[in-house]
């Protein structure tokens, strides 16, 4: 009876039109006041605990990293690299949009951010070469959902916090399903492209592919820092989020220079002598290799007694110097300029750029664009944390009334097994995902279904991936599919047209959901191999 009253109150407030966070918090307070033996002081304790939850502290920093990586320059570089990789296939520009969404998902952890950053550029590009607006919008709406499946994922952090499982294992578990989902969407696009005779981009050679990778490299290296740092034992997922935020700010302001006072300032200028540019570029490659080597070797070899920090640094310096010398000698030979002369002429370019960065350091950190980006990230954080805090209060109320245990006993009593249970979970989440924001829904549903899953022998990491994939589909199903509204906003199309455009590709994700649900190894193989199985106390 208590469960019916509690869920009935939530649904009533939702249908009235109150925001999700208020519905959950108000329902919990009213229920505790009038129907429960629990004390109202538990409300304050639960809300305070949400702000003190160590795992949830990762969310604000991942959102901040996403805000800085959502600048147009990063997205454009990813799209160019994706086009260079797969654009020469039939329907290649559409496939490149999916690939760009996959890469950006690994930087942002957010589906709406992926849709906005990639969709704003990719949809316009697809329209220019002859794709229909509906086709382009449907692809981006669906591919954008990969933002919560490919790690790092904010929704995975929420699930880990709600069920007390490992964030690291959840991130690993999302790698194979994320690549598989993107591959299935790209395969579907290729089939449609062959049928409709959609255009293909010209293959411009491996040189273009390498240039695209080089331009996008500093952004993509964020993936290495996050995943390598976590699994190399350098820092926890929460600490990784802080590092990701700092790295994103530095890259956006001082390396890519897409915003702030250095915006538009290129590292080299047309007035620089060709030999100076060669010398500068060569030393850039050498320094970049050294930095990448130091980070990668630290993640991989920090526990080795033989390979100390000093030895790693010496190896990195030698290899970086060799790379720089090879590049300068190769390029400088065409200019008939000596190797030493090229490097010497390139030093003033370094000096000029360091001077620019020193003068622009504080104006960049406290400038208008930076403040606006941080404010946008803060607004998103407050909105999401408000929903999560109230959802945790609701979950506390459920636990206090022993509702999850009662549901577990009922389902086991009527003969549910793991197969039928997962069907029920998928149906519940697909329906709930149509009406609620993913993080809030997860915090409510996870504490209820988690004990049942453990009783039936379902792996907790596998269950988490199933729930995340359901949240993906919920973001592109009406009436509250967030990606649909975002896509409608950036294209100017009506919501009904966006829904119609997205539906054919939603079918691909439904097939993917079935595969993920009933082939557990897709989710568990990687975390088992690297970190071992999740042990639930």
Strand content: under 5%
Shape: globular
Helical residues, percent: over 70%
What order do the SSEs take from the amino end to the carboxyl end, as H and E? Answer: HHHHHHHHHHHHHHHHHHHHHHHH
Total strand segments: 0
GO molecular function: transmembrane transporter activity
Function: Part of the tripartite ATP-independent periplasmic (TRAP) transport system.
Protein name: TRAP transporter large permease protein
Pfam family, one: DctM
Structural key phrases:
transmembrane; 537 residues; transport
Kindly describe this structure:
With 537 residues, the chain is mainly α. It has a domain at 266-361. Helices cover 78% and strands 0% of the residues. It is built from 24 helices and no strands. α10 (167-173) crosses α24. It is globular, with a radius of gyration of 25 Å.
Topology:
Elements: H1 2-16, H2 20-34, H3 41-52, H4 58-69, H5 72-86, H6 92-108, H7 111-128, H8 133-143, H9 154-163, H10 167-173, H11 175-196, H12 206-231, H13 237-255, H14 274-301, H15 309-335, H16 339-365, H17 368-400, H18 403-413, H19 418-433, H20 438-455, H21 460-474, H22 482-491, H23 495-518, H24 521-531
Domain TRAP C4-dicarboxylate transport system permease DctM subunit: 7-259, 368-521
Subunit structure: The complex comprises the extracytoplasmic solute receptor protein and the two transmembrane proteins.
Organism: Marinomonas gallaica
Task: Give a quick rundown of the structure.
Keywords: Cell inner membrane, Cell membrane, Membrane, Transmembrane, Transmembrane helix, Transport. The chain is mainly α.
């Amino acid at each position: 009876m208590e469960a019916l009253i509690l869920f009935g109150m939530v649904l009533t407030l939702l249908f009235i039109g109150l925001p999700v966070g208020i519905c959950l918090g108000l329902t919990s307070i009213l229920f505790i006041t009038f129907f429960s033996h629990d004390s109202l002081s538990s409300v304050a304790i639960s809300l305070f605990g949400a702000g003190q939850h160590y795992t949830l502290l990762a969310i604000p920093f991942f959102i901040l990293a996403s805000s800085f990586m959502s600048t147009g320059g990063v997205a454009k570089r990813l799209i160019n690299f994706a086009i260079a990789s797969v654009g020469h296939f039939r329907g290649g520009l559409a496939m490149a949009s999916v690939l760009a969404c996959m890469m950006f998902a690994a930087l942002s952890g957010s589906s709406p951010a992926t849709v906005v950053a990639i969709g704003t550029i990719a949809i316009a590009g697809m329209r220019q070469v002859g794709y229909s607006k509906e086709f382009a919008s449907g692809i981006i709406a669906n591919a954008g959902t990969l933002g919560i499946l490919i790690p790092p994922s904010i929704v995975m952090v929420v699930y880990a916090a709600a069920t007390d499982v490992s964030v690291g294992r959840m991130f690993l578990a999302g790698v194979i399903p994320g690549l598989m989902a993107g591959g299935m969407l790209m395969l579907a696009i290729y089939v449609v492209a062959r049928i409709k005779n959609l255009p293909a981009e010209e293959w411009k050679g491996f040189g273009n592919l390498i240039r695209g990778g080089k331009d996008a490299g500093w952004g993509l290296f964020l993936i290495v820092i996050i995943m390598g740092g976590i699994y190399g034992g350098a820092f926890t997922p929460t600490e990784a989020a802080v590092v990701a935020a700092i790295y994103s700010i530095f890259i956006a302001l001082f390396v890519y220079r897409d915003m702030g006072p250095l915006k538009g300032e290129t590292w080299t200028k047309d007035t620089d002598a060709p030999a100076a540019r060669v010398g500068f570029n060569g030393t850039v490659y050498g320094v970049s290799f050294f930095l990448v080597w130091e980070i990668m070797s630290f993640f991989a070899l920090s526990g080795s007694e033989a390979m100390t920090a000093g030895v790693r640094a010496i190896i990195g310096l030698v290899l970086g110097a060799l790379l720089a010398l090879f590049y300068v000698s190769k390029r400088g030979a065409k200019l008939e300029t000596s190797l030493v002369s090229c490097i010497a002429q390139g030093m003033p370019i370094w000096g000029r750029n360091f001077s620019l960065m020193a003068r622009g350091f504080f104006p960049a950190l406290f400038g208008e664009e930076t403040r606006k980006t941080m404010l946008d990230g803060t607004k998103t954080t407050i909105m999401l944390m408000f929903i999560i805090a109230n959802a945790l209060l609701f979950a506390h109320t459920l636990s206090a009334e022993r509702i999850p245990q009662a549901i577990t006993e009922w389902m086991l009593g009527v003969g549910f097994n793991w197969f039928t249970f997962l069907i029920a979970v998928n149906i519940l989440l697909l329906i709930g995902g149509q009406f609620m924001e993913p993080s809030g829904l997860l915090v409510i549903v996870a504490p209820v279904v988690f004990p049942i899953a453990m009783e039936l022998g379902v792996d907790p990491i596998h269950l988490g991936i199933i729930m995340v994939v359901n949240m993906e589909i919920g973001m592109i199903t009406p009436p509250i599919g967030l990606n649909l509204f975002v896509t409608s906003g950036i294209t100017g199309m009506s919501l009904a047209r966006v829904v119609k455009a997205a539906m054919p590709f939603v079918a691909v994700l439904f097939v993917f959901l079935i595969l993920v649900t009933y082939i557990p190894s897709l989710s568990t193989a990687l975390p088992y191999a690297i970190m071992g199985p999740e042990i639930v106390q």
